Amino acid sequence: MALLPILKYPDPRLRIKAQPVTHVDDALRRSVEDMYETMYASKGVGLAGTQVNIHLRIFTMDVSASGNERICVLNPEILHQEGVLYESEGCLSVLNAYDKVKRAQKVHMRGMDLDGKPIELKAEGLMAVCIQHEVDHLNGMLFIDHLSRLKQDRIRKKTEKNQPRD
Ligand code: K1U
Ligand code: ZN
C-alpha cells in the first residue's frame, strides 16, 4: 500500500471530468487500497479518484464512528435526492477553507463495487453530503464552486498566498 499525493486547489487537474470504470483488475484494486490508506491518513471521510490524479469514476468513503466501515463506489450515479441541508464543508484538496454548502439531505445512489457487482445506497446526513461532495469531484467540481464569487476569490487569494509559485 502507498500514500498518494493529494492534488491541491488551484491545480487544474482537479477540473478533469473522470471517465467511467470499464473493467476491474488487480491494478485498480491496488489503487483503491492506496486511496483508503491516503483517506485515513489525511483524516478524511471520503476521497475521490480525481483528488489523487486517478481520473476514473471511483470514490472511497468511511463515515462510521469506528472508522472501520469502508465503502468504495465505482461509476456512482445519484438517482434521486430530497430535502435540503446546510452543513459546513471542508476538502482535502482545498486547505484551510470551510463554509456552509446547500446539499440534499437524502440521496439514493447506485454504482458498482470492486467485484463489479451493482450496488445501491440510500444515505442521509453526513453520508449523503459526502456522496454529493465526491460525485462533484468526479465531475471536476469543488465545494467552493457552490459559494459566492466573493468567497471564492477570498479562498483563491488565501491559497495563493500560502502556496507561492516557484
Ligand atoms: O473529498 C474530500 O475532500 C474529503 C472530504 C469529504 C467531505 C465529507 C463530508 C463533508 C464534507 C466533505 C472530507 O472528508 S473533509 C471532512 C472531514 O474530514 C469530516 C467531516 C465530518 C466529520 C468528520 C470528518
Ligand atoms: Zn473534497
Task: Describe the secondary-structure layout.
Elements: H1 26-41, E1 46-48, E2 58-61, E3 71-82, E4 85-91, E5 94-103, E6 106-112, E7 118-124, H2 125-138, H3 149-162
Zinc ion is lined by residues 91-93, 133, 137.
Quick description:
With 166 residues, the chain is of the alpha+beta class.
Notes on the structure:
This protein is α+β, with helices and mostly antiparallel strands. It has one domain: Alpha-Beta Complex (Peptide Deformylase), CATH 3.90.45.10. The protein contains three helices and seven strands, in the order H-E-E-E-E-E-E-E-H-H. The strands form two sheets. The chain has a five-stranded antiparallel β-sheet. The longest helix has 16 residues, at 26-41. The radius of gyration is 16 Å and the shape is globular. Residues 91-93, 133, 137 line the site of zinc ion (ZN).
